[in-house]
Structure formats: C-alpha cells, structure tokens
Amino acid sequence: MDTEMQTKMKIRDLKLWYGDFEALHGINLDVYSDKVTAFIGPSGCGKSTFLRCMNRMNDRIASCRIEGQMLLEGSDIYAPEVDVVQLRTHVGMVFQKPNPFPKSIYENVAYAPRIHGLVTDGPDMDELVETSLKKASIWNEVKDKLQQPGTALSGGQQQRLCIARTIAVQPDVILMDEPCSALDPIATAKIEELMDELKNDYTIVIVTHNMQQAARVSDYTAYFYLGDLMEFGETQQIFTAPTHQKTEDYITGRFG
Amino acid sequence: MKDHTVRRFEDELNELKATVLSMGGMVEKAVRRSMKALLEHDPKRARKVIERDDKINQLERDIDQMTRNILALRQPAASDLRFIISTIKIVTDLERTGDMAEGIAEAMLKSQETPLTHLESLEELALKATAQLKKALDCFARGDVLLALSIIENEKSINGMFQRIQRENLTYMLEDHRKISAGLMAYSIGKNLERIGDHAVNIAEMVIYMVQGHDVRHIDHETASALVTSNIES
Lengths: 256, 234
What we know:
The complex is a heterodimer. Chain A is of the alpha/beta class. Chain A has a single domain, classed as P-loop containing nucleotide triphosphate hydrolases (Rossmann fold, 3-Layer(aba) Sandwich). Helices cover 35% and strands 26% of the residues of chain A. Chain A has a six-stranded mixed beta sheet with strand order 6-7-8-3-9-10, with helices on both faces. A four-stranded antiparallel beta sheet of chain A has the order 2-1-4-5, with helices on one face. The longest helix of chain A has 14 residues. By secondary structure, chain B is mainly α. Chain B has one domain: Methane Monooxygenase Hydroxylase, Chain G, domain 1 (Up-down Bundle), CATH 1.20.58.220. Helices cover 85% and strands 0% of the residues of chain B. In chain B, helix 1 packs parallel to helix 3. The model of chain B has no long low-confidence stretch (mean pLDDT 95).
C-alpha cells in the first residue's frame, strides 16, 4: 500500500444500535484522501447505515445510538461541540434518487453557499455557480437555462446538478449513496467519469449494489456483511484475489 | 465452494473445465503416441498423431470462444476471473504441447530414412516429460498447488536430461559426419520433449495463480514455494 497515503477519515470501533438491534459491530476503517472508496455488500449488511454515520444522518433517527470514533482529519465528528450543519458542508451527500430543490438550476447551487454565508450574491456567486456546475460536468448543458427549474432536467442531469450543489460548499468528503441506480447506462457513465475527475479534489465514498461499478470507479473497496466490515483492500485485489471466503462468495455471485 | 446463484454460469464454468481437461487428455495421448511411434518404428501411428492435431486445434478455438463468452457476458471476478485467465493461458500451452507431439511424429516419419540412435535417452526424457504433463493436468483438475510446486521443482532434472542428450548427440555427430542428420533429428526430438516439460511448468504456475492468486512465474523456486505454502497454512 502506498505509504504517501493520507487518511481523511479514521473510524475506530464504531458500533451502532437501532433500539436493541446492533446494526454495526465495531467498524475500523481508514478512508484515504483523494481516493474513491466503495462500500459493497448484500442488502442489510450495514453499508448504507455506516455511510450515513459519516455525516451524522442517523442523528435524526430517535432509536439510533452510536459508540466509537469517527474522526474527520483527527477530530471526532460526534463530539458534543460539533455543529451538524457545519459538518455537512465538510461531508456532503448525494442520494440515490436525484433530489434537486424545486428552484432554478442557479438557485440549487447558490442556496447552500448563501445560507452558510460563504459567498454573497453577485459576481462572486455567479462564478461559484459556474465553477461548481463545470466541476460537475453539467455546465455546457445548462449554461443557457440557469433560471429554469432544476426538476425539468433529465435524471442524469439532475444527479449531476445535485453533485454541483454538494461541491458548491467546498466539502472535503462526498458521500454517494447508490448515485446511479436510477440512471441509464449513459448517465451512469457520465457520473462515473465525473467521480474520476472529482477525486483529484475530494475524497469520495460510494455505496453501490452494482459490483462492476465498484470495480470500475473505486480505488479501495470495503465489503460489509451482517454489520461487520469483512474485508477492506485495494479494489483490484478485492476483485481478483479477495482474502475472505465471504467476500469471494459475494463478488463471484455465490451468495445465499 | 458454494455453487453460483446463477446456475447457467455454474454450468458454463464446469463445461469449460471439462473441455480443457478433455483437450489435455488428447494432448497427453498425442505425446505418448508420438513417442510410441518413434520407439516402435510405427509410421501409421505417427500419421495418426499428425491427423489428430487438427482436433486439438479445434478444441483450442472452442475453448477460446467459451472464455470470450464468459468474459463478455458474465464479467467474472475473483476466483472465477482467475480460472478464466488461467484457462486462456493453459489452453495455449496445451495446443503447443500438441504441436510438439506432432513434431515428434513428423521426425519419426523422416527418421525412417536415417535411423536414430540413443533412443534410450529420448525414451527416458519422454517418460519424465509425459509424467510432468500428466501431473500438470491433474493439478489443474484438482486445484492442487503442492503438486504444481513439485512440477516446477522437477523442471531442473528435465533440463539436465536434455543437456545430456545434447552432449551425447554432439559427440556422436563429431565422430562421424554421416550421422549429422540423425543427430540433429534426435536433438530436435529432445528439444520438443524438453519444451513439453516447460509447458507443463507453465500450466502448474497458472494453477497456483488460479487457486491462490500468486504469480510465481520468473521467481526463484524457494520464494514461490514459501508463498504457496504460507497460503495453505494460514
């Protein structure tokens, strides 16, 4: 493994309960900076639950209890003084179903930087909207219709708009929960190409049920099974010679 | 190991393996037959070996088609991927081994005009080489990495035997220049047998990759052996 590798998020012995049910049994994982890490595993293995722990999306679930450490650049994101809204500007999320705000394309991108006070309206905001849309590889498709509603775009464009919206607050980490499962193969390829570009500037974590997608886009892969992290390693190693039989069974389609 | 959830895929992999093994069986037979033809001065048998090489070649094409289909349609991963990659390479070694047998059969037909001497050495080498080939097919069939290691280890003794044959023939040719064509033919048969041994080693190396994911080609035997056995113990 590359010794130059920098750890963006360090997770130690993270446990999570929904009421009495222990959904995650002590996860230890390093998420490397400027790399794409994929979480794979069968439904109910805990991969999405774990992803949502990474920007405290589970806080809203009353019965949910978390133990252990989730460090972002050395600071525990579950420390009492952490402002969750601020945290989510550092760790953004893109969801399965594209969910643009019912506002214009421009406003979709400008909204968060404005409410966080990062940029004021005017030329600075115009520039931020443009660079964010460019980074999300959608600028050329929308530059002439920035005032049109975001919801009028195609599914794949909406998803890239949501990525632009996430990028606009300049996060460190982008979490993606099945970002392509509602998209056709061409829109999927565009998002995958985009991820490859984005990882120059951002750390990306993606949950996907599509193992070929995990193989294509990620540098590291983590295999979750029944609330445990079974195996973590370089993606090419996981897909050619996994260490654990459970990983092997899953990625070769011998599961269940 | 558990079966694949998709039965058809499981069937395709089993069929592929069975086809490789039947090709292996044909190749093994070709090598034995070509040597038998040589030692028993049986041109009919030699011609049969040459004729049957077409069938071996056809199997190579069939197997390549099967592996292409699996790669394109099933996107195999992990042990399945290693099995497919190993198969693609092993098939080439088997096809070449078939060509070596064909070469021996052709040499036999030519040797009718110039009788060969030193056949005992060639016979001894042939026994070793065919044993290596048989073991290579067994280790592929069973995924036996220890057997694969022993094949790799045996390569040295085959090479040693071939060098002896070279020396014998050289001396023989130096003694009497009329014996040069017979000597060259014996040399070429020896070379073919030595190559058969090399192909068996290639197959053994691919079996280790197939089973454990270690690439043991072009590294010294001790390192390879340590890699393979550490994986078994853990």
